[in-house]
């Protein structure tokens, strides 16, 4: 019995390692999930209302590049919100089940004071990933990933609505698990959305964006 237990523990250890204080196993965050079909019409670009799309957004070689200035207008006249250029995923709003956003994000050096990924509910955001001085944070409370400037990172955000739980993975490593904010109807966003103490120019790039649902 003891030898069997030792073998099992050794097998599990061979599949897992500890990195930066986080347990990382060979299982992928998307295991057990199925991608939902996304079309061009599902990518709704929100940008300063007085600017043509090409002045704040480009899509070249599979990369969505979004940028905004801290002095820009909001996304619609009369809105009290701050400047943004964001992709709002449409057609896949959800209020139950387990859903996942996946994308590869890139933030150039100098961009700060901006949200690059959000989950929005009917009453506002339930998750924001913000960039401050080269660090990716959950709101302004918890460090998710350091030293993010000028490199691509795989971002997976899982929202278990029924369990009221949010989990964030960076490059396959779980970096955050927090409670949600209760029931609502939710959707995913990514790009740049101005926050406190922003740089004048803010930019993020995204590619291979997917939305998945647990089987």
Automatic annotation (TrEMBL):
<dbReference type="InterPro" id="IPR014895">
    <property type="entry name" value="Alginate_lyase_2"/>
</dbReference>
<protein>
    <submittedName>
        <fullName>Citrate-binding protein</fullName>
    </submittedName>
</protein>
<dbReference type="InterPro" id="IPR013320">
    <property type="entry name" value="ConA-like_dom_sf"/>
</dbReference>
<dbReference type="Pfam" id="PF08787">
    <property type="entry name" value="Alginate_lyase2"/>
</dbReference>
<keyword id="KW-0732">Signal</keyword>
<feature type="domain" description="Alginate lyase 2">
    <location>
        <begin position="41"/>
        <end position="211"/>
    </location>
</feature>
<feature type="signal peptide">
    <location>
        <begin position="1"/>
        <end position="23"/>
    </location>
</feature>
């Amino acid at each position: 019995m003891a030898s069997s237990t030792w073998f099992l523990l050794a097998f599990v250890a061979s599949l897992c390692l500890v990195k930066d204080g986080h347990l990382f196993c060979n299982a992928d965050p998307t295991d057990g999930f199925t991608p939902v079909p996304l079309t061009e019409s599902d990518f709704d670009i929100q940008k300063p209302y007085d600017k043509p799309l090409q002045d704040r957004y480009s899509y070249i070689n599979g990369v969505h590049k979004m940028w905004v200035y801290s002095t820009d207008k909001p996304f619609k006249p009369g809105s009290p919100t701050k400047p943004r250029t964001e992709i709002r995923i449409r057609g896949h709003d959800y209020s139950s089940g387990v859903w996942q956003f996946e994308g590869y994000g890139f933030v150039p050096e100098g961009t700060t004071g901006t949200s690059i990924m959000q989950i929005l509910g009917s009453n506002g955001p339930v998750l924001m990933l913000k960039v401050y001085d080269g660090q990716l944070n959950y709101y302004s409370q918890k460090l998710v990933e350091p030293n993010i400037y000028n490199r691509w990172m795989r971002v997976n955000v899982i929202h278990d609505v029924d369990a009221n739980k949010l989990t964030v993975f960076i490059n396959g490593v779980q970096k955050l698990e927090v409670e949600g904010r209760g029931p609502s109807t939710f959707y995913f966003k990514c790009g740049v959305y101005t926050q406190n103490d922003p740089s004048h120019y803010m930019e993020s790039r995204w590619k291979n964006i997917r939305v998945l649902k647990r089987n």
